[in-house]
Write a structure and sequence with these properties.
Length: 521
């Protein structure tokens, strides 16, 4: 795609035309996987909410993490040998320090660092943690006193100096050990501006990524706003011979941008460059799937081509079609099953709490293939539910649930504490959750133990209940539609996530949790 085509204004379409469903391969729990097994892959490489990818090449290994916002344990590290197939390892952040935004994952002189911007009360800050092994243990978070910026990127200058580049075209010097900010924040770069007639969310220069390649330092930046109009978010670039500038704008800016709302991926941006095992170059960034803001910003992989002038460009087009995968490396088994027999507690890899209290982990335990969750609050809004990240447009999940006397429990589709849907029950009545409130309470014929099923088929949600362990099912007579449960309605940069909740006294027991992705029909 030429620079001219990339910069073309968005067409004035008002509704997306029906799109044929791409034919992904299916993996664990029938979840879609990018690797098609024929030497090509189909985006996303990691589906579901994987925003602001921060990637580190460490010899033959690639490590990747994402903004985890108010989910804890957070900053789950993913591992790959080929950039297409990814396995989860361990979370790097266990203590709730606030809403975690776009991080920088680095290795410097044999030590791993994570620079973590946090939105929190009474003030925002950027923290740093370190580890001598990618699996930890990671240090306690250390605040850097940077209260006015987000999206740090660690960079090392040609003179060995260490820096954090920040939102807005700013930077700050780091101490030699990388654990303190020294000196004042300074402005060093004025990002390229798009034409005023383009439909964007706002200028908002953010997510700088610095790469030293050959004799150049390259800076990739996101502008246009990370959500809002599908045509807003975009990738721009600049370069300099020195970490200290001056920065020369890429003549092809913007390098990536959704130009038509009929494209497969919306709001594409927040890009990094990475070298594949075969020496080819690629870019990782995020984007919303057409029509599925509810899935959050998913992780996309785009091939990169270098020109004789030392500039690069992305060549994957709108990423709607299979792309030849990077050569070399070794394909690891991709992803993880979301079904759970609760033989062990997979907290931080599979399950996470929403906005947990400091002692939240004490609420949950596993024993005899059951997960016991102590009740909290009166509803999902006050109960810090346990949640999964599901990356398919249609899926079903179900679980056996047994109540404690006087308790309530159920299954939810949860955006945040003000916007969720689901079905719960006590020993006498059901409770329907819709629009983030508790609504109808019809009679429960099953008592304090039942199997619940939730089906989300392209935003159409239905519920089934069973009093005999799933041998026979009754369809609940209240369905829902959840296409509006997303950031452009509610804010927060989150996704609609399946999960479990328990409220009131005692512990609810959850057994035999089964998740199944449903192929497009």
């Amino acid at each position: 795609m030429t620079a001219l085509a990339l910069a073309a204004p968005a067409r004035a379409s008002t509704a997306p035309a029906p799109m044929p469903s791409p034919d992904w391969r299916r993996g664990l729990d029938n979840q879609r996987i990018a690797d098609l097994g024929d030497g090509t892959f189909l985006n996303p490489v990691l589906s579901g909410d994987r925003p602001d990818p921060a990637i580190l090449k460490d010899g033959e290994d690639y490590y990747l993490t994402f903004s985890s916002f108010e989910s804890y344990p957070g900053l789950l590290i993913w591992h790959s040998r080929d950039l297409v197939n990814w396995q989860p390892r361990k979370p790097a952040l266990t203590r709730n320090i606030g809403s975690v935004w776009a991080v920088s994952l680095e290795k410097h002189e044999g030590r791993y660092f994570l620079y973590i911007p946090v939105k929190a009360s009474p003030q925002n800050d950027i923290f740093v943690i370190w580890a001598d092994h990618i699996d930890g243990p990671w240090s306690d978070p250390v605040p850097l006193g940077l209260h006015k910026h987000i999206d740090p990127c660690h960079a090392v200058g040609e003179d060995g100096s260490r820096w954090l580049f920040l939102s807005g075209g700013d930077r700050v010097r780091l101490s030699d050990d990388g654990m303190r900010a020294t000196g004042e924040v300074e402005h060093v770069y004025d990002p390229w501006r798009y034409p005023s007639e383009w439909d964007v969310e706002g200028f908002a220069p953010e997510g700088p990524k610095i790469h030293r390649i050959g004799k150049w330092f390259y800076m990739l930046t996101a502008v246009g706003g990370t959500a809002g109009p599908p045509t807003g978010h975009m990738v721009i670039a600049a370069r300099s011979r020195s970490i200290h500038g001056p920065w020369e704008q890429h003549p092809g800016n913007p390098l990536v941008r959704t130009t038509d709302i009929r494209e497969a991926w919306w709001s594409r941006g927040h890009a990094s460059l990475v070298e594949a095992p075969d020496g080819s170059w690629w870019s990782l960034y995020h984007g919303y799937e057409n029509g599925f803001w509810t899935l959050g910003r998913q992780c996309l992989l785009d091939p990169v081509e270098w020109g004789a002038d030392g500039w690069f460009r992305m060549t994957g087009g709108d990423l709607s079609q299979p792309i030849p995968r990077p050569k070399g490396g070794r394909a690891l088994p991709h992803g993880m099953a979301l079904s759970d027999d609760f033989a062990t507690l997979q907290l931080g890899t599979k399950w996470s709490f929403f906005r947990p209290a400091p002692d939240e982990a004490a609420r949950v335990r596993v024993q005899d293939n059951a997960l016991f969750l102590r009740g909290k609050g009166l509803a999902p809004s006050t109960g810090s539910p346990l949640l999964l990240t599901a990356g398919d447009t249609s899926y079903r999940f179900e679980c056996d649930i047994e109540l404690a006397p006087g308790g309530t429990a159920g299954l939810v589709l949860f955006y945040d504490d003000k916007l969720y849907a689901g079905l719960g029950f006590d020993a006498v009545r059901f409770v329907t959750h819709q629009y983030g409130i508790e609504r109808a309470r019809p009679v429960n014929p099953h008592g304090g133990r039942m199997r619940l099923r939730v089906t989300n088929r392209r935003h159409i949600v239905s519920f089934h209940t069973s009093g005999d362990g799933g041998r026979t099912w009754l369809k609940f007579d209240r369905g829902m539609e959840v296409s509006g449960y997303h950031h452009n309605v509610r804010g927060g940069f989150l996704m609609l996530r399946p999960g479990l909740y328990a409220a009131g006294p005692g512990e609810a027991a959850f057994r035999n949790f089964r998740f199944t992705a449903l192929a497009a029909e």
